[in-house]
Amino acid sequence: MTNNLQEKQVVTCFLESGGEILLLRRSEHVGSYQGRWAGVSGYIEQTPDEQALVEIEEETSLNGEDLKLVRKGKPLTVEDEKLGIRWVIHPYLFQIKERGKIKIDWEH
């Protein structure tokens, strides 16, 4: 691992419904990885569990009542030397109870 990278803690949430996984294309208005496909993601400002639900609601309009936690993975580290960041990613998988309620925000 490179030592001069800034460490950033994030959550990444994958939402499943009927065997399909929601992937969102990042808009040109976000700070990094514009145009790339991703799960619902965001910087951790609270606990990872709390932040996962905050990000899902902000980015999809779904709240905790619309979701069932299927699995929480162990954090993994990804280094991006171009951005100078060591991402510590806290992964989650949620099942969507009612698929038609999704409304995406400006980030996608």
Please provide a brief summary of the model:
With 108 residues, the chain is mainly β. The chain contains one helix and eight strands. 12% of the residues lie in helices and 43% in strands.
Would you mind describing this structure in some detail?
This protein is mainly beta. It has one domain: Nucleoside Triphosphate Pyrophosphohydrolase, CATH 3.90.79. It contains one helix and eight strands, in the order βββββαβββ. The strands form two sheets. Strands 1, 2, 5, 6, 7 and 8 form a six-stranded mixed beta sheet that branches. Strands 3-4 form a two-stranded antiparallel sheet. The radius of gyration is 14 Å and the shape is globular. The model has no long low-confidence stretch (mean pLDDT 92).
